[in-house]
Amino acid sequence: MTSEGTVRTALDSSGSRSRVLVIGASGFLGRAVVRALAEEGHEVRGLVRDTAKGERVREAGGIPFLGDILDPGSLRGAAKGCAAAIHLAAHPSRDEDGTRVRVEGTRSLIDVAHSEGLHRVLVGSGYWVYRGQSEWITEDSTVDPRGESRANYEAERAGLRANSSGDLEVLVLRPGMVYGDGSWFRSLALSIRAGEYSVVGDGTNRWSFVSLPDTASAFARVLTAGVGGEVYNVVDGTPAPLREFADFVAAQVGAPPPPSISPEAAAKEMDDVVAHHLAADRATSNQKLVRLGWRPRFSTYREGVPGVLKEIFPRGPGRGR
Ligand SMILES: NC(=O)c1ccc[n+]([C@@H]2O[C@H](COP(=O)([O-])OP(=O)(O)OC[C@H]3O[C@@H](n4cnc5c(N)ncnc54)[C@H](OP(=O)(O)O)[C@@H]3O)[C@@H](O)[C@H]2O)c1
User: Fold this and answer.
1) What is the pLDDT of residues 163-183, one digit of tens each?
2) Which atom of ligand 1 is nearest to 70's Cα?
3) Is the distance from the beta carbon of residue 148 to the nearest atom of ligand 1 less than 6 Å?
4) Statement: the pTM of the whole predicted model exceeds 0.70
5) How far away, in angstroms, is 216 Cα from ligand 1 center?
6) Mutate which of 75, 88, 106, 185 to test ligand 1's pocket (most atoms within 8 Å of Cβ)?
7) pLDDT tens digits for 76-111?
8) Which residues pair with 207 in a beta bridge?
9) Which candidate, 81, 78, 93, 86, places its Cα nearest to that of 36?
């Protein structure tokens, strides 16, 4: 039986549905993944840390479970009866606490997956783990994890070490710059419109983008079709220079092109690791994911970003939210 066949058998107990736990379900990526899985017919449980956030999970089509990835008892309760789990929890500070949530959280999830008989664990990571380079980046390219991406990379390692075919399969996804109404893109759009954004460096470095719903559909695809022990980039396949992207967003919101700031000045003004990531050249390939049958709805940010800007500025770019 092919790996895909094995997974389908494991996940699709009734032919089309399976029970999946999403951890970090109230977050930017987590909520979109809950929605995508629910739309595909999975029964989705969403782990949330307080009842108020459970509403977000319900609204996305999932069933909220109260718990914390660092509390094994609550994690076990939520995972009971599930075929798979997806780790998208991240601490807002992305510091030491952030590392615990990502890395200890992964270890804890693996333990629970073993004890509760889960078949698959997907660990969400990010493409900032790669070293910047002028050639295309594939899943085999050199990594250079720093800051937030170090915690993501350690989480990947902790997960992949536990991968074993036929028992528990662990897979890693590395989304690029995920644009949607939230997270970094919302901040960038608001600050470009307010004339407060600066492009770090000369802007010739390429970022790799992907829309939020396409990211979520990639998680859904990898859940059922991905190969255990493998890593998948999640990007739209059309990287673009940062300057081109920033000028496009500025034109869309009726603002002038943002000024540039030198990497040295940016390192002083903001976290130097973040400044490093913003100026890194990362043109990333999605071919491995495409070979699984995934196709992004938006193959370039030029198609997907205008709709997101309408969500952020429903009354038009110059008129506030
Ligand atoms: N945003 C992007 O563009 C992007 C791109 C590539 C990769 N990534 C990666 O994807 C992951 C998720 O990012 P995100 O942007 O979706 O983050 P986010 O919006 O900050 O969401 C994080 C989620 O984790 C939950 N959480 C925090 N601590 C927890 C704990 N101890 N137990 C259970 N849940 C906990 C949060 O719940 P509360 O609401 O209760 O705090 C929230 O639901 C990160 O590893 C990030 O590096 C993000």
Assistant:
1) 997 799 999 999 999 999 999
2) 31
3) yes
4) yes
5) 14
6) 88
7) 999 999 999 999 999 987 678 889 999 999 999 999
8) 240
9) 86
